[in-house]
Amino acid sequence: MAQRRLRASRPTLTPALWLTALLAAPAAAQGPDHLALGKMWTFENPPLGYLEKEYGFKPDQKWLDSLRLAALRLGERGNPWCSASFVSPQGLIMTNHHCVREQVAEVQGGADWVHDGFAATALEDEVPIPGLTVQQLIAQEDVTARVDAGIAADDDAVTIAKKRADNTKAILAAADAAHPGHLHQVVALYQGAVQQLYRYRVYDDLRLVVAPHLQTAHFGGDPDNFTFPRWSIDFSFVRAYEDGEPADTTAHYFRWRAEGALDGDLVFVPGNPGNTNRQLTVSQLEVQRDLEYPLILGQLERGIAILAPFTKMSPGILTTQLSWQNSYKAIGGMLGGLRDEALMQKKLQHEQHLRGAVSENPELAKKYGDLWREIDRLCVQRREVLAKSSFYGPSYSAVLERGVAIAKALDETVSEEERAQAREQAAQEVFEGNVLTRALLLDHFERAVNWLGADDPFLMAVGRDYRAAAGFDWPKAIGALRRSELGDDAFVAQLLAAGDAAERWAQSEDHAIAVARVLWPLMRDAQQTQEHVEKELETQGIRLGHALHDVYGSHISPDATMTLRFSDGRVSGYPYNGTLAPWATSFYGLFGRGVEFGGKYPFDIPRQWLDAEQAIDLSKRVCFASTNDIVGGNSGSCVVDQELRVVGLIFDGNIESLPNDFYYTQDKARAVSVHTDAIVTALQHVYGMQRIVDELRAGAANDR
After folding, report:
1. Which domains are assigned to the chain?
2. What are phi and psi of 518, to 5 degrees?
3. What integer best gives the mean pLDDT of the chain?
4. pTM for the full model?
């Protein structure tokens, strides 16, 4: 659109004046809102000048190293999903309950520790958690030149992506050889304009120490998710072991502050934020607003309703529903921000400022002058393919999945390696499906009609003989798919072994085979188009990252990458719904909320807590809000003061923080944390874990 191509109105600078201004105030060069790209700072480029100006605090390298080395990334070795921290000299680790909930379920045996809670009252009772690790970032190295080695100016996007992938593989292989036993990762910052090699020490013997009741950690359920005030006590402790003994973490851990967070405190959050989209262009965000997020929300909304009757049948279904509810609310909040005209106008102004800076500098204009036009062109292509790539697939139909595999195996335009893999997939046993998967498949087709239209060739093929007055009779069409010969393993084996398989496939009148013949080329072409567009956008995104870097330097925060960052903020309430949200909640509110909702789920309080009520100081804090910049992946991050003492534990953000995905603000956006009061109260009065309280306090008494 023409409006997006307008530059911000600002005086013309000569090259000399431009360079002077750029060198004099790189952080301020972002314009009125210099924090629009957020406060997820990397340890390679800490914003020392900003911190000194904003808070009168300038951390030294020892402080930064201590913050980095006590903070951890939690998950499987190659699949992290949360954050954590060392909080004692004996390898004690604090994270969220929801970060280890599935692992607790895996080790609980015949008990129900997820529902009832778990407490190892003695060291020897701590339970091993196979496969779970924490990763400590111990070294960083800029490898940008090595990742970009050999890339020519006239290389296309696919070639560039392959060269970068090959270079990255070589860098990792060399790092593994030089530092065996460590985990290495090449991290693309500023959309790939900067590439860092991170080296991690991995602790892979973790044992469960304490986990509260699910209802304690999940208090308020979906209604309270992404809200504040809040009363969830979402914590757990695990311990790292080495050679069968608690790990010696004396050198780097966060001490415990007795009084916890206080209103107005300067606090820091070291953790691993997962993903943000702040460096996308307005054009890219508009595709998210108009297509990507509505597509996802439609699937989640219908899926949550479909799952509801089945949640009591299986813990796995309940877990899936909770995950979908969380995603629905999160993406809905992001979409609300994208539909906020005032916020999008701020994003547009920020983009115009960058474009103005580029166009006014002849060298930058030569390098990036066509950048936004190219991204706009690719966004048009992404709009055209997004719905197709979303619906062109077998969904929950096992026979269609097998049919697509056979069609791919017979497709001579596909590489021999991919065809062989497709044959193996086609030979695998087919899951018959059940009433739940049939309901989800029915929903897939009904939503597809709304997005693709009833005359779409795939939908026409599925509903070929099953027309109804109001459209397609999808239940009958699904029934026909289920009766297909593709559900017969012997038939499929015979077909794949036949010398005339392609001819037999082409001539078959079996309903699922006929649908698969139509679906596979549509699916293949949509995937290829989307892959091409995404690779082109990735290439242009790297150029955009370079443009940001050339204009603003390293004084801006790169998008989140599920790697270690730290964020600054203050403990603070905020105005909402015509009233004020306090900076913290208390146990008065927790027990009161249970009474107000009649003790019914999701506001029911576990019996052990009700029994302990008389022993609890109800004025103690439960949760608090702060202006730290967080996102998914920060779950489990400690909140520490400027002396690196623990004052809380991140577990959520409020609903107002969700639009921070693309444009950071802190007027009402808040990170939400469990207060250390609540954690100590739980350990002492509910779970009989005075030994852990003593361990935390003993660690706090040690000299740094």
Report:
1. 61-131+204-276+558-701 (2.40.10.120), 388-531 (no CATH)
2. -80, -40
3. 92
4. 0.90
